[in-house]
């Protein structure tokens, strides 16, 4: 079967391109190896289900039975994801689109063979898009093949809720699950191999996050490397360089690796880097003309909104003017959904100091922002705001916001940076009340030179 567009992997970029090409009258084949992944990582095992669980966990009260509450939360998660999964399949059940359930492997530059339940199918695309995503990194240590060891996908269906949970890894994924399971009622211990907590974050912000987790009841151990694991049938013991840690379950949150092992990329002549991610140029084209890679598998930031923007770049390269570039992206925000969420965009303090600019900084703890009553209303006053401004141009350079609603506030700052807005546009804005946006009125009134 020859098609105009062959998509491998049903992620955000791939499914969007498939729909757009079909709407333009092109023939499309979309290959997905797992029916449970219709729609991609985000809606099935990533952003949406985990944030649904985060919200459920935040709603639990001391009077709620942890086991019953967790099972109800998981059932609600599954119902939501089942609906989204089916809707994503239905969205591409349209003329011009052939949906193929199976595992694809390349046999040539733009040709794949797909192993399906009915046998092998050969597909050739004038344009090929690889969007197979990434998966959790495994720990290759003795005992870590125990059924008590989970990754960020499998732990979403753990049963029963563990009384004690050890998390191997102190990165953003590990922190999200630490916050979540603590709110569900587990006693959580984080084992972080680094000597410094959140080393890529400003030290005052990292300390605010650390103290917030400690206030929740999370135990954080720095400079700890696991060496092996024993499972006696009732609990696991993680042996480390700094002692033993017992728990009913262990979550490995040690990063993610690209899903390329079964693709046979060498048969197509498609290059990968030393980490296994597919090498692409600024328009996301691989070493093979006409073959593009989108989403987590191309080594860029692993966010679904980046995958959506990858779709725009590939569409422009194939069907548009060919002017869009990955390097065009400015002020890409990110959020870690601990409670409260931590959001960042643009420069942090370290980058601002190294920028060579004349920089102003505004900083204030959430609990001390009088013009922002919303945190007090919802009962979550942890966190702080930090914003950086060019003293000469008055343009906003970046922000770190550790606060309720930061996932929304950071988007406003990102837009301000992209549009070249002045600090007065945020500081003197007229915002609804009570809202978290009001914080900008007060916090940006405290700008001082960055010493």
Characterise the protein shown here.
With 451 residues, this protein is an alpha/beta fold. The protein folds into three domains: 206 residues, FAD/NAD(P)-binding domain (3-Layer(bba) Sandwich); 106 residues, FAD/NAD(P)-binding domain (3-Layer(bba) Sandwich), CATH 3.50.50; 117 residues, Enolase-like, domain 1 (2-Layer Sandwich). Helix content is 30%, strand content 26%. It is built from 13 helices and 23 strands. Strands 1, 2, 3, 4, 5, 6 and 17 form a seven-stranded mixed sheet that branches. A hairpin with a 2-residue loop joins strand 4 and strand 5. The relative contact order is 0.11.
Q: What keyword list fits this structure?
A:
single chain, 451 residues, alpha/beta, FAD/NAD(P)-binding domain, Enolase-like, domain 1, 6-stranded antiparallel sheet
What is the CATH superfamily label of the largest domain?
A: FAD/NAD(P)-binding domain
Strand content: 25-35%
State the helical fraction.
Answer: 25-40%
CATH architectural category of the largest domain: 3-Layer(bba) Sandwich
Low-confidence stretches: none
N→C terminal distance: 64 Å
Structural class: alpha/beta
CATH class of the largest domain equals Alpha Beta
Largest sheet, described in full?
A: 7 strands, mixed
User: What is the fold named in CATH at topology level of the largest domain?
Assistant: FAD/NAD(P)-binding domain
InterPro entries: FAD/NAD-bd_sf, FAD/NAD-binding_dom, FAD/NAD-linked_Rdtase_dimer_sf, Pyr_nuc-diS_OxRdtase, Pyr_nucl-diS_OxRdtase_dimer, Pyr_OxRdtase_I_AS
Disulfide bonds: 42-47
GO molecular function, one term: mercury (II) reductase (NADP+) activity
Cofactor: FAD
């Amino acid at each position: 079967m020859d098609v105009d567009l062959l998509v491998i992997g049903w992620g955000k970029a791939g499914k969007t391109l498939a729909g757009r090409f079909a709407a333009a009258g092109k023939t499309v084949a979309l290959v997905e190896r797992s029916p449970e992944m219709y729609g991609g990582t985000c809606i099935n095992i990533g952003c949406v289900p985990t944030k649904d669980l985060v919200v459920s966990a935040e709603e639990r009260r001391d009077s709620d039975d942890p086991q019953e509450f967790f099972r109800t939360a998981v059932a609600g998660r599954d119902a939501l994801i089942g609906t989204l999964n089916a809707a994503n399949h239905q969205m591409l059940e349209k003329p011009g689109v052939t949906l193929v359930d199976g595992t694809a492997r390349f046999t040539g530059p733009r040709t794949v063979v797909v192993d399906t339940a009915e046998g092998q199918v050969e597909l050739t695309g004038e344009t090929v898009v690889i969007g197979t995503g990434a998966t959790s990194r495994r720990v290759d240590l003795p005992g870590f093949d125990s059924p008590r060891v989970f990754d960020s996908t499998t732990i979403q269906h753990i049963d029963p809720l563990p009384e004690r949970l050890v998390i191997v890894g102190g990165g953003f994924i590990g922190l999200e699950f630490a916050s979540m399971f603590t709110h569900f009622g587990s006693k959580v211990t984080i084992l972080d191999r680094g000597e410094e907590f959140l080393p890529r974050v400003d030290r005052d912000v990292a300390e605010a996050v650390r103290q917030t987790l400690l206030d929740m009841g999370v135990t954080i151990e720095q400079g700890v490397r696991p060496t092996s694991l024993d499972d006696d049938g009732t609990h696991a013991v993680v042996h480390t360089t700094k002692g033993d840690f017992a728990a009913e379950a262990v979550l490995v949150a040690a990063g993610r690796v690209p899903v390329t092992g079964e693709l046979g990329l060498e048969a197509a002549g498609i290059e990968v880097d030393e980490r296994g991610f597919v090498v692409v140029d600024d328009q996301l084209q691989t070493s093979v003309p006409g073959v593009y890679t989108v989403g987590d598998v191309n080594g860029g930031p692993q966010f679904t909104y980046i995958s959506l923007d990858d779709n725009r770049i590939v569409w422009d390269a194939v069907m548009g003017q060919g002017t869009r570039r990955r390097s065009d992206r400015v002020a890409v925000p990110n959020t870690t959904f601990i409670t409260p969420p931590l959001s960042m965009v643009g420069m942090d303090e370290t980058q601002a100091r190294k920028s060579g600019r004349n920089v102003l900084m505004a900083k204030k703890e959430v609990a001390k922002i009088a013009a922002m009553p919303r945190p007090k209303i919802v009962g979550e006053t942890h966190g702080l705001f930090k914003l950086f401004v060019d003293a000469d141009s008055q343009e906003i350079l970046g922000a770190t916001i550790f606060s309720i609603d930061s996932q929304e506030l950071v988007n406003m700052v990102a837009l301000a940076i992209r549009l070249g807005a002045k600090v007065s546009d945020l500081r003197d804005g007229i915002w609804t009340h009570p809202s978290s946006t009001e914080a900008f009125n007060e916090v940006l009134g405290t700008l001082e030179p960055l010493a």
